[in-house]
Amino acid sequence: MGMDEFNPGIIINLNSNYSDFRFDPFTLPVFVAFIPFLYIIPTCFIILRIIQVYIEKGIKKNEEVVNKSVFLVIILCQLSVSFTSFL
């Protein structure tokens, strides 16, 4: 029992499964990893549109009555969900 038997780096480096590894981008886990982009990108556009309406109707004094608190809660919820999904 030499020192080489307890060193996992040598065992992994000499293993042909690891040294001959080739990445295949056309596998199910890779496709599943890109699914969030299908809903995150449109969600960002929706958030920007809600912020635009909030600025036009809520901050600038318009004749239309909007509930600023509701718009603010919608924006904060959307932002928190979007940012946590990136983590």
How does this structure look, described?
The protein has one domain. It is 70% helix and 0% strand. It contains 5 helices and no strands. The longest helix is centred in the middle third of the chain and has 25 residues. The protein is rod-shaped and about 75 Å long. The chain starts with 7 loop residues before the first helix and ends with a helix. This is G-protein coupled receptors family 1 profile domain-containing protein.
Total number of domains: 1
User: Strand fraction band?
Assistant: under 5%
**Rough outline:** rod-shaped
- Indicate the low-confidence ranges by residue numbers: none
In short:
With 87 residues, this protein is an all-alpha fold. The chain has helices at residues 8-14, 16-19, 28-33, 35-59, 68-86.
Structural topology:
Layout lengths: L7 H7 L1 H4 L8 H6 L1 H25 L8 H19 L1
Key features of this structure:
70% helix; transmembrane; 5 helices; 7TM_GPCR_serpentine_rcpt_Sru; rod-shaped; G-protein coupled receptors family 1 profile domain-containing protein; membrane; mainly alpha; transmembrane helix; single chain; 87 residues
